[in-house]
Amino acid sequence: MDAIVKMLEKHQPFFEKISRNVYLQAIKDGFLGCMPIVLTSSIFLLIATLPGVVGITLPQPLIDWCNKLYNFTMGVMGIMVAGTTAKNFTASMNRRMPAGKVLNDGSTMVAAQCSMLLLAVTQFTTKFNGSELSVFDCTSMGTRGLFSAYIAAFITVWVYKFCVSRDLTIKLPKEVPGAIAQNFRDIIPFGGAVIICGIIDVVVRNLMGVPFSELLIKLLSPLFTAAETYPGLILIQAATAFFWFIGVHGPSIVQPGIDPIRLANQAENLQVLLAGGHPAHSLTFNMSLVGEFGSTGATFIVPLLLILFMKSKQLKAVGKASIVPVAFAVNEPLLFGAPMILNPYMLIPFVAAGCVNVSVAKFFIDNVGMNGFSFVVPWATPAPIGIFITTNFQLIALVFVAIIILLDAIIYLPFLKAYDKLLCDQEAERAAELGLESDGAASVAANASTPAVEQATASVETTVAAADSKPVADQPEPAADASAKKDVDGLKVLVLCAGADTSAMLANAIKEGAAQTGENIASSAGAYGQHTAIMDQYDVIVLAPQVRSYYNDMKADTDRLGIKLLAPRGKEYIDLTRDPAGAIKWLRENLD
Prior knowledge:
four-stranded parallel beta sheet, 26 helices, about 5% strand, about 60% helix
């Protein structure tokens, strides 16, 4: 086991390099920026369709109105993703631009959306009431056009970089207002981007007879097929869990490449369901409810196992602290508290549980009659509830949920008990060294001021430290003299994580701590990738452990804006979320 951990640590910089790839980051953050479209449109779709499941007939005008809202949000998601991806890719590119030269993200966003339409949408004429009308085929404006959206975004930003770096812009006298001058400066790069995409569209249509978006689907059809097989689903889930296990946010690496497939399959499932058929696609957006049952590692049942079956005080404390967050897909208290990350005892169950879950799900969809997931529910929906909803309230889905809970418990329990025995032995040794009772009860009483979670074993602390040390090795250590620390009164603090879930825990702790100490501190939570437009409004930015691999990129931005950047280690971060007063003290000690 130690050899496996050392091997993983050795290759961790390579995996972190992948996670910081500017193209993957732009895709992930661009898609994340459009998540309100996915979630909001799904609500209107649920309103239009689900009442019929229980025999309630809604007025047809209301159904038509809900469907219209869905079609004009989810139906144009590809266009929106082109813009948000270009915006985020522009932010990354600006870090590499020569001094004094900056790309306008608003301009690249608009240009990418126009370029995406050229690549993905077909225009034709038809007759209506005796008149000729020009019509757009909207099929590829939504999720079907996501690949075209990404290509359009990357081409656009690179064209802008080429033009701006070489001053290939129309320059106006300095007396001309900045907003007007910017419009003229954008003419050459904007024209270059749309012309290039227009040429690509003409070439593909003449050579292949299909628009660019259809060409990608045709070329990637083997990937579509392979990804939805048992090996494909297992590989996707194993990779997601494996990257998280070594301390790199797995979904950031794995999901950008498969999101277009997942969303297209889910949209097709929905069409089949509404037509009265059996939705058969298993690789869909909400398949994560199964593979990440309780979040990455399929940890939904783990806190309950810790509470009921473990004997060590550390694991029982972690179980009690994490049972509610994990139920709502926030498993960082478990990942860093147990810990699960880089803990050799947890590698096999952490990877295997999700793989087993997706395999069972595919079997149920293919052979038992369970519907493939058709609706989209918010990521924080408890997994059992989410699965029941998105399969259109099938009773067989409840049977499926019960089975995977049982299987996950069987997978995790032996490894948890082995790890629990190690911790119990160490707790007993520690108690014996202190001359206390063998069961360690007095040890807990003597150390009541220290949370039980903090009494981690030396070997486990070493692995967690190894997972956290490299990305922020250059981060200054807190000064020792507390009296010399900067006053935190009046600060604005932004906490960032992968999806604004873990960050909300620390932001709330800071708010509570500010109220306790009487300090005037404002704290907010956000998702990394959606921070660029608002970060200049804050004095301090805190990176959660799962996005610490972006420390160097973020440091370049915060140094430029004069913002203090902090990145606490995994266990330290979780402890701060539980100690509001300690969070304020930590802020004070780290502001020099």
